[in-house]
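seq:
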Amino acid sequence: MGRVRQAVTKVNQRLTVKLAASLLAGSMLLSSLLGFWRDRLLNAAYMPNKEAGLAGYVVGLDAYTAAFMVPDFMFAILVSGALSVTFIPVFNERWTKGNKQSAWQISSSMINFMALTTLAASVLIIIFADPLMRYFIAPGMSESGHALAVSMMRVIAVNPFIFAIAAVIASIQQAVGRFTFYALAPMIYNIGIIIGTVWFTNGINIFGWQIFEGGIMGVALGVVLGSVMQLIVSAVGLVGLGFDYEFKLHWRNRGFRKVLSLLPARSVDQGMDYAVSLVEVNLASRLGDGVIRAYQQALTLHMMPINLIGVAVSNAAFPQLTEHLGNNRQDLFQKDLRQLLRVIIWMAMPVSVITFFTRGYVVHFIRNTGDPMMAGILGCLVVAILFRTIYHMAARAFYAQQDTKTPLNISFAAIGLNVVLAIVLSMVLKMGAYGLAWAQSTVAVIEVVILFVVLEKRIPHLFDASFVAAVLRMIVASTVAGIVCYLMLQVLPFRESDSSFFSAFPKFMIIAGVSFLAYGLISRMLKLPEVEPIIRQVNKFLFVRLDGKRR
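struct:
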């Protein structure tokens, strides 16, 4: 056990922001690829396929998708996002001052508080699953789909409880700069769902006794398996940190009370985002079978670059930003924030442009025959990709200052507008699922613009002339990349015959690679410093001799 403990401690060492961002981006990429494979397996099993002569089970996929809405909503309100941005600044304030006892008391209290709260929420979901699904989530779903969705929701209802404990543990590791197991955990979750899709759907037999007959409900069991495995991996990451857990709520600890006082604003903010998802699923259920699944899958695809860039970089940088403010270094906070925003914008712009032009290929990766509706929805969401990526870093500028109310107040207006736009565009103007996507993109732009205006007032000269000039040069470089991508698509278009992954993926990589290369070259011509670290790494790779020495 001693050797295992030493090995875990060595692997889970503190990382710099650059290494942490790279690790998180890499893990999110692998997790997203596993997610693609997961969805591809699920779609292949239950989506109609004319070539294979499969009728599919679209209603079952809609039910599976709808079953997540309430458990995910409760987790979002109580834990997700809200915990990390409220817990980490308070924890770091104690940790950097050497008061580890108080930091561990806050950690233990948050684990226990979140576990008790989400356990109650899980029980309520199980009890009220039927009316929630019938009247709020998917009133337009057929009776067979409704019954299946209710059963699945009751199985998945355990997720908020399991995820809550894992989230506190992950936040502890994030706060002290330990990202190895924090990065590994999400991948394990997807593996559990893949196991459910591949094996549990065929039934579960133990020593010849059949304890589960199989079917799409097996995927829900895989979801629970994945969440349990994710919790175990997260817990391993605590090894070597000296965490002193107590089964107790330290109400007298001021830090614990501070976290609880900050939670409501961020929780409501996070919950409102999911409230929009609930409205969207409600509307999509009225638009016909398969629309729920197509829209949610397009949302999943558009979240991949947001997670890889916005979430990865902002999560890695957040502890350092809080440390700057904890040490009263407002100058370093402003400098790092400006630099991080520039990097995120520089990375997100070409990704959004290339995603728009290659959306047919991108959809193909989770739906082997392609899907015109899904591709069209994704095309409408590319604006959201850019601005949601920026949002994560901009919002954390407020959270680092222990201000959760300002983003909340901005979100109130933005979320309300999103709901109104979703209803008007999809139902009144008859734009269907595309209206839902355009509502998302419109609100993403408005929310980031308002955040930037408030940030500029709070931190004067944050967006100085050099920042604006750099963004304009990035727009020029992205335009060139878009033109190159379009021309490449004329040479290597996505065809119906590209039904296999291996026939489409090489073409996609060539198109994306050439487009990104063009973006990098134009960025260098325009003297954007963000490209220099990449050029240095490429030069290092190309000009290193076999003996490891520079030429």
